[in-house]
Amino acid sequence: MTLTEIVFWLMAAAVAAPLLAQIPIGIRLPVVVIEVVLGILLGPHVLALVHFHGVLETMFKFSMAVTLFMAGMELDFSRIRGKPLTIALGGWLISLLIGFTVVALLRVVPRVDTPMMVTLALCTTGLGVLLPIFRDGGQLDTAFGQMVMAAGTVGEVAPIIAMSLVLSQRFSTWQEMGFLLIFLVIVGVVAAVGMGLRPPRILAFLAREMHASTQLPVRISLLLLVGLILLAEWFGFEGLFGAFAAGMVVGLTTHGEDGEPLRAKIDAVAFGWFYPFFFVGTGIKFNMAALGADLTSILLVPVFLLLLLIIRGAPVLLYSNAITPAQRLPFALSSAVPSLSIIVVITEIGVQAKTVNHDVAAALVGAALLSVMLFPTLAGALLSRLSSGAPSAEAAR
After folding, report:
1. SS (H, E, C) 121-177
2. pLDDT > 80? residue 316
3. What is the DSSP letter of 281?
4. Which of 368, 358, 351 minimizes the C-alpha distance to 294?
5. Which tens digit of pLDDT belongs to each residue from 9-37?
6. Which of residues 193 and 302 earns the better pLDDT score?
7. Domain 3-387 in this protein, CATH class
8. Max CA-CA distance within the chain?
9. By CB atoms within 10 Å of each CB, which of 198, 233, 276, 379 scores lowest?
């Protein structure tokens, strides 16, 4: 299959997804969910129109980083700091405790070996998945949306940091902690420079180049993305950590009306080009044959699906004074949407290192895909029903 054919089918799915989302079927499916489903249909186990290798595999990995970059860009610490962030941190620690307990219990199941990395996978929240859904649904700027974004931020960042420290084989734990501190200092300095150093001549120059063929501000943003990915990898961390950090830096430096033109252009590049490679590519990559080849894998899928909801949904009890009782289930469902990127990384590394067997890996990815399809859809339906009659989160506050 030629590169042109691969890109054609992938972009065809990307165009079809938002059109299919408009079909009135009583419930509105998120576009990213439809993209994953279309990817499964295009993949080698259904229509076999596209296979996951070569250029598609390379683009998938970079697009995975872009989803984290965009999630970092959308962070507004002025909105989530204080109570939302504090509760989110407490909720994630509760999830981690529940996860450790569950993973310990799963070890008694024959042929199921679930190391600590599986715990981190079950404790993730897919901020990169939730972002376009909440954005399209107009929930991003609501009090409820900010609570979810805070929970999603911690559920994305904390596992990435923990995963980077656990997976690193190049340096000792203390060295990694030192490198982590150095990396955070570098990111902080870059962000501070970007926010504070704004000479009028440089700003005028960048404003001119924004609408020129060079698109220099966009190129600088992409250079920062790749640069921090490389820096993170040099320090022994996962590149996803660097991508998220780059997004935070760009988001902080483009905050306000002056940064809107650049943010709009980055949105166009990310959502129009890279996101389809990740979400459609996730469906193409999904190995349905491996999932159905063994009874253990089949049975583990609903188990992991339920665990995702319990482990990340249980902390909703901490939000009794922050959201209405009717919003608790949508909140739990949203928080339980896992990070596909982190789970894919964990399963790939685990299988290659022979610390995670194929049964667990296939079941975990299968459960993650099902949760991405089901949880946001159910949460969106419940929120739509609430918005038509129930009091809003703002009223409750």
Report:
1. HHCCCCHHHHHHHHHHCCCCCCHHHHHHHHHHHHHHHHHHHHHHHHHCCCCCHHHHH
2. yes
3. H
4. 358
5. 999 999 999 999 888 776 677 788 889 89
6. 302
7. mainly alpha
8. 67
9. 198
> For residues 354 and 253, what is the distance between their CA atoms, to the nearest angstrom?
42
Spatial separation of the C-alpha atoms in residues 10 and 173, rounded to whole Å: 41
Higher pLDDT pick, 352 / 50: 50
- Helix, strand, coil percentages in the chain from 3-state DSSP, rounded to 5: 80, 0, 20
* % residues pLDDT > 90 (the chain): 28
Q: Letter for the amino acid at 305?
A: L
Give the pLDDT mean for 298-309: 91
Cα gap 74→51, rounded to integer Å: 32
**Of 296, 304, 292, 294, which Cα lies nearest the Cα of 365?**
304
| pLDDT tens-digit series, residues 132-189 | 878 777 777 788 888 888 898 889 888 878 877 776 666 666 777 788 888 888 888 8
Asked whether 6 and 55 are in contact (CB, 8 A), the reply is: yes
The DSSP secondary structure of 244-270, one letter per residue, reads: HHHHHHHHHHT-SGGGHHHHHHHHHHI
Residue 200 near residue 249 (C-beta atoms within 8 A):
no
- Whose tokens are 């165009």? That residue is 15
In the chain, where the domains are located: 3-387
Ranges of H-type helices in 254-392: 260-269, 275-285, 288-292, 295-313, 328-335, 340-353, 358-389
How many other C-beta atoms are found inside a 10 Å radius of the C-beta of residue 130? Answer: 31
